[in-house]
Amino acid sequence: MEVLSEEVMVGNLSKDTALKGLELMFTARTMANKFEEEKEVTKTYVHATSAGHEAAQLAISMHLKPQDFVFPYYRDDSILLGIGMTPYELMLQLHAKKDDPFSGGRTYYSHPSLNKADKPKIPHNSSATGMQAIPSAGVAMGIQYKEAQGLSKPEPGEAPVVICSIGDSAMTEGEISEALHMAALKKLPIIFFVQDNGWDISAKAEEINFGTAMDLAKGFPPIEAHSFDGADFLTCYEKFGEIVKTVREERRPFLIHAKVPFLGHHTSGVRKEWYRDDLEDHKRRDPLPRLESNLLDNGVGIKEIIKIKTAVKELVENDYNRALAAEEPSPESILDHCYAPSPITEESGEREPKGGELKLMVDCALFGVQELMEKHPEALLYGQDVGARLGGVFREAATLAQKFGNDRVFNTPIQEAFIIGSTCGMSAAGLKPIVEVQFADYIWPGLNQLFTELSRSYYLSNGQWPVSSLIRVPIGAYGSGGPYHSSSVESILTNIQGIKVVYPSNGADLKGLLKGAFYDPNPVVMLEHKGLYWSKIAGSEEAKCIEPAEDYVIPLGKARVVQEATDSNSVTVLTYGMGVYWAKTASQDIKEKVEIIDLRTLLPLDEEAMINSVKRTNRCVIVTEEQQAMSFSRGIAGMISERCFKYLDAPVLTVGSENTVAIPLNKTLEKAMLNNAQKVKKAILKTLEF
């Protein structure tokens, strides 16, 4: 009878697992040393490495499966090796080469994006110094939603987990607190993996932190927190594995605090020799010789270790030279993946069904969302006060929670950054989030996520991660809302490339654009004028219209001719939102002389429709509710002046609100500040006089 030999164990790990850990750890360290050796070449593009952090990073990444999501931070190249990426693939990003699998040469080393069937998913990460916490929590919330709704039914022990990797000093970021709060509130299946090396660039931890991530975690008791020696691979691998297993089974959040030595530079551009006075202490905690010693003490031969090291050195050397010689991106590719192509390219469906009823603009929006949610179980709605009790402060979500349940329509805390940024993760999880920011004035805390995460995801992931996100934002001055409920923000938003911005002026357009925005695979901000919701502003009665049929949809980027000029002496008015009604009122007596173009979409603009109209009329007035100084409307004026110069018989005029610092509360002051039909008429007549 054959006697089977016992499996060699290294601590509580199998020999094979421990050796794999050593191989990957040595690979990461050899790469870091190679980058330093070739610093005159590698300094071309700023990078950081995992030197000293390798044990903790590998200990968690080696437990991940293809269904999992991981959000590395900027020195997590060992995590990338741990999930199966090769040195060559990482070095393609180091040198910003065409075949960089993460971004096609568009972003920094260890700023990965990955969407491959055989590996954990990595949605786009921007700088990963804290901003990634919200999208990662969004993914976890999306996974939880799909499981609750029966849209996903993982096998026992195979449920996906989300790993959000963060440097300890970044835990002071306010957005991280928002993510921790939601993870605790919703009990999300996420692990916050915090690596603590005692430094924040050149500031020591004690200069900027009152404690560690463990102290912060005490404020979120539903999150179970553990601290480990991140230089001990054997312990970390075992304990991290237990935590990952628990999250797969129990679907609740954890925080892991790993204390690690810091052996490298902050980045290649901020070098350790400039400020570090503790290098010898950190070297004594190096995880690589520690693991090697563990292996030798447990019977692994030195020759076996030397063989691994020799093979790794050869691999790294060859891969570095291959990557350095690889093809550069083509200049012609610079505009690739700015926007994901939309399936909606033409206006279709019934705009005015026979026998249809006149509906308020707010009701057209409500019914549009309802139809989408009835048809698409992956659609959900959340934001401040949209839940069952109120249904939105403008009643724009009334009855929806009752119809679809509190899991699909729910309130969020006052966290605009989370509301916006979570849609990035929700989209990555395969959902279609519709969210609301209660007033345009409240969008400012969410701009970081909108700009850094949502707008850049498709471009910087080289087309791997489009973000399907519909963000509804009530806007405009009406009814003495004052300085915190009345602002116009389109000039800010239209300067964020990668998003789309729509601004409907009536109920039919709102419903059609809502459908178009939902099916558009890009992040869309829909600005909805709160004064038009109920047509209570004089002259805005036509915002109330026959509700379009369920199949009615408008593609984004298409303007509409509201009023056509027939006189040879005429002017084009380019406008949107409330401006449409000011222009119509202003032109009541001279309709034949005034062509009104409702832009409907502000980004991207329908430049062709605008230019064609101006070429016919030879004059242009731009009407907006916004203040004019350095504004969106002035940008349009510049474009019209540039592209239609030889056709113009008069200067392009812009008409908007007064350049006040804020919208005053007092109704007399508000009226004096705002644009109106009289101001618009004056501009039209002035232009026609040329």
Description:
The chain is built from 25 helices and 23 strands. By secondary structure, it is α/β, with parallel strands linked by helices. The strands form 6 sheets. A 7-stranded mixed beta sheet has the order 12-11-13-14-16-15-21, with helices on both faces. Strands 3-4-5-9-8 form a 5-stranded parallel beta sheet, with helices on both faces. The chain has a 5-stranded mixed beta sheet with strand order 18-20-19-22-23, sandwiched between helices. Helix 21 (about 580-585) links the parallel strand 19 (about 570-575) and strand 20 (about 595-600).
Gross geometry = elongated
Q: Provide the helix percentage.
A: 25-40%
Rg over CA atoms, rounded to whole Å, is: 29 Å
- State the end-to-end distance: 108 Å
- The overall number of domains is 3
Main β sheet profile: 7 strands, mixed
- Give the strand tally: 23
CATH class of the largest domain: Alpha Beta
Instruction: Return the average pLDDT rounded to an integer.
Output: 95
CATH topology of the largest domain: Rossmann fold
